[in-house]
Amino acid sequence: MRREAETSEMAKHCDSPMKLIELAERSGVAPRTIRLYITRGLLPGPRRRGRAAAYGAEHLERLQEIRRLQQQGQTLHEISRLVAQGQGVCPPPPASAWTGYEAGAGVLVLVRTDASPWRSRHIRNVVARMVAELSALDKETANGSGH
What's the domain range around 110? Predict the structure, then answer.
């Protein structure tokens, strides 16, 4: 929280244009990642292009916002939709691919495949526990000891 406040204060006093490397140093985000964010539409392009490319306080503030949203568990895809909504653009609904886990008799758990890797691992672990519990419940029911 303190670092965000310090970075926000730096952004307010940063009216002079920054080169990419300076933006990277101030934001703590690698230049390659900044370029990726620009390509994905998460971050506006530089004020000037080419060798004279310049970035301003708005770039630093957006990088802070992206970092904050990621820390809250948002994926880059989700963040890009939020950015698009904030700009008054109505993006088309995202195409989604789904993975289905058969957790038990008549139970199918659908999970979007574009979830972050840590979230996907967590979901697989929860589904595995669900499968084990449903399997134990099915065995109890088959043995006549079910409710």
Answer: 98-142
